[in-house]
Specification:
about 0% helix; about 110 residues; globular; three-stranded antiparallel β-sheet; about 45% strand; mainly beta; single chain
């Protein structure tokens, strides 16, 4: 279920009197930011970050494990990432070593 949340900037203490509108789920999580303006095929690389960082999400074309550096600098392996899925991850690097998934696309 989607909800529309209207926030008055006057209530928020801002000078702009126009309201802010966000689409949120039943838990108040913003779901309006699910669109992407740009995409790049990911080149797996153990030594270099993606050309543009961080991603908003990554798309997995073929299933497998994905080793990444997250925005906060942590390195993690997502095991068993499903094909055809978009994972909303803020990623800086996708490693060649330990990544078995393929056809990965960075979404911005």
């Amino acid at each position: 279920m989607k909800y529309i949340q209207i926030l008055s900037s006057w209530i928020l203490g801002e000078n702009d009197s126009s309201p802010q509108v966000k689409v949120v789920d039943e838990n108040g999580v913003n779901i309006d930011g699910n669109r992407f303006a740009h995409a790049d095929a990911v080149t797996l690389d153990d030594d270099n970050d993606l050309d543009t960082t961080p991603t908003k999400a990554i798309y997995i074309g073929s299933a497998g494990n994905v080793k990444v550096d997250m925005l906060d600098g942590s390195t993690v392996i997502f095991k068993g990432a499903n094909a055809g899925q978009i994972y909303r991850l803020k990623v800086k690097r996708v490693y060649d070593t330990d990544t078995t998934a393929s056809d990965i696309v960075a979404l911005y």
